[in-house]
């Protein structure tokens, strides 16, 4: 995989046409297109099918969490669209097992969301968690191993510990990426692209630093270069 293959662009826009425009501008500077909740609820489901039919790698960031029956059948529908990746909240094994059944024999890779990168220790305390973010991420990363998921979503701050605790046979996908000097926005646990790769991330998820740049392709290429330099 080259640097671009490891770059997932979060297409956090309202309508499919805006996403198509961004994809056309970024081109081969990124390897995976992430369709999140905003776009999924704005006509993005058909865009997932359209991009998959074109041979593009599509990441459906649906962050599923529901009763097992619903998670299983939703996962099966998303697999049928031709998506390459799907996120499921990794809070419990029941939910993850249901997603495993739902993907069946498809190539869909399942990623567990550990703790959203916008949440810090105080936010978790507010939710009633006795664990801090680092411990809860690690705890949930181990659950994903038991469930047989392909990997986890985790911030760069936790990537090294997760890698140590669970070995190399799984994917660490890291959002909360901010190149030096970029605006933080609502993200709490951020890291630069190079540091996240050095910490053990396999893929980086980058939204606003690319999609809101004057030149999204140049922004993506700068991150791709950082990834390649960090990989040596
Ligand atoms: O614009 P920005 O680079 O902050 O976008 C990050 C993307 O990664 C968003 O689409 C967000 O939903 C997603 N994400 C995240 N933290 C997680 C899981 C997904 O920021 N733990």
Keywords:
binds cytidine-5'-monophosphate; 16% strand; eight-stranded parallel beta barrel; single chain; 232 residues; globular; TIM Barrel; alpha/beta
Short description:
This protein has 232 residues and is α/β, with parallel strands linked by helices. 48% of the residues lie in helices and 16% in strands. Helix 4 links the parallel strand 4 (85-89) and strand 5.
Secondary structure topology:
Layout: E1 7-10, H1 16-26, E2 32-35, H2 37-53, E3 57-64, H3 68-80, E4 85-89, H4 93-103, E5 109-113, H5 121-127, H6 133-147, E6 151-153, H7 156-166, E7 171-174, H8 193-198, E8 203-206, H9 208-211, H10 216-231
Parallel strand pairs: 1-2, 1-8, 2-3, 3-4, 4-5, 5-6, 6-7, 7-8
Task: Please give a structural write-up.
The chain is an alpha/beta fold and 232 residues long. The chain has one domain: Aldolase class I (TIM Barrel). Helix content is 48%, strand content 16%. It is built from 10 helices and 8 strands. It has helices at residues 16-26, 37-53, 68-80, 93-103, 121-127, 133-147, 156-166, 193-198, 208-211, 216-231; strands spanning 7-10, 32-35, 57-64, 85-89, 109-113, 151-153, 171-174, 203-206. It is globular, with a radius of gyration of 17 Å. The relative contact order is 0.15. The mean pLDDT is 94. Bound molecules: cytidine-5'-monophosphate (C5P).
């Amino acid at each position: 995989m080259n640097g671009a293959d490891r770059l997932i662009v979060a297409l956090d826009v309202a309508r499919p046409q805006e996403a198509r425009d961004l994809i056309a501008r970024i081109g081969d500077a990124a390897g995976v297109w992430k369709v999140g909740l905003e776009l999924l609820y704005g006509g993005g489901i058909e865009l997932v099918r359209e991009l998959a039919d074109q041979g593009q790698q599509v990441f459906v960031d649906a962050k599923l969490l529901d009763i097992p029956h619903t998670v299983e059948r939703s996962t099966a529908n998303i697999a049928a669209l031709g998506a390459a990746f799907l996120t499921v909240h990794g809070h419990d094994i029941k939910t993850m097992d249901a997603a495993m059944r739902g993907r069946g024999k498809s190539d869909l890779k399942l990623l567990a969301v550990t703790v959203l990168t916008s949440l810090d220790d105080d936010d978790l305390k507010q939710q009633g968690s006795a664990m801090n973010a680092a411990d809860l991420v690690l705890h949930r990363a181990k659950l994903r191993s038991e469930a047989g998921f392909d990997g986890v979503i985790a911030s760069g701050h936790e990537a090294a510990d997760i890698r140590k605790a669970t070995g190399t046979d799984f994917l660490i996908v890291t959002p909360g990426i901010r190149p030096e000097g970029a605006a933080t926005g609502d993200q709490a646990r951020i890291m630069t692209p190079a540091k996240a790769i050095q910490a053990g991330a396999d893929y980086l998820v980058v939204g606003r630093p690319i999609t809101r740049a004057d030149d999204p392709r140049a922004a993506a290429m700068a991150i791709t270069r950082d990834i390649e330099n960090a990989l040596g």
